[in-house]
Amino acid sequence: MTPAKRQKLQALMSQLTFGLEVEQLGISRSDYSVIHQINAMFTGRERFKQVSDSSITGYNAGCEFVSGIMNYSSLSNVQEAVRLIRRGGGKAHPSCGIHVHVDGSRFLNNPKALIRLVRIVNRYERHMYHALQADSLTAGQDRSVQRRPDGGVGWSRPVNPLFIERLDRLGKNPTIDQVRQAYYNAEGTSGTATYDSSRYRLLNLHALFSKGTIEFRCYNSTIHAGKIKAYIQLSMMICCQALINSRAVKGQRSFDEAKSHYQVRTWLLKLGAIGPEYKTLMTHLTGHLKGNASWHREA
Fold first, then answer.
1. Which domains does the chain have, with CATH numbers?
2. Is residue 138 predicted with pLDDT exceeding 70?
3. CA 247: distance to chain centroid?
4. Residue 106: CA atoms inside 13 Å, Cβ hemisphere, count?
5. Closest to 120 (Cα-Cα) out of 282, 31, 234
6. pTM of the predicted model, to two decimals?
């Protein structure tokens, strides 16, 4: 990444807002002790909500903590909120997950940037699934033997190839309505349902078209503040790259699991994960991968 692009990245990261959903088991919907502690740190639109989630095993024993609209400067307080959830008895569980939302207003006003975002995610999907130790069937969650509410399987599926094909046919100056139509046509849905089945993708664009946010659904259940920081940073950097770059390469990048440490690390550096701010991101997303971090070929 050039110094000029890095400067743009830093500026855009400070401008974009994000939201976080933390599903957990251990704190019930009726136990408000933790949410009161969390909201002592936040005011206005940043305040958290505590909501029920029927997908959590032991429904009455767990709930979902949903952040308000956050700025990047609030990230340290978001981490502290996660620590409060853990101290209050919240635990990770296979039926739970982490969802990150990024402000999508710039994409709704720039369909070319939205198409670039889709292509970036499609190109590096295998890198993401390996780095996050997730897969398309389980969405980072152990739901492979369960079925979704709509009867289908897969909670965090890759970008739909039919959607890519339809995007390729839109021409040089597509409208946001054309992109929206291509998305729902590829999924075979109308997009009118609140919980439309098209949302069960690593990159959920139903959230964009219905609520105005880009949702990443590929993150494992965790109550680890450092991992959640990494998930938020990754989501925001991918969105920033789509907004900053003028083009995105079509097709999937080749991936070799035996060399995954090097391949994922170089991709993260390309996104802008450079310097002390991203040390924990590098640790959590590459530390478990195979191969040499610095060399594509072993000496």
1. 3-286 (3.30.590)
2. no
3. 21
4. 17
5. 234
6. 0.92
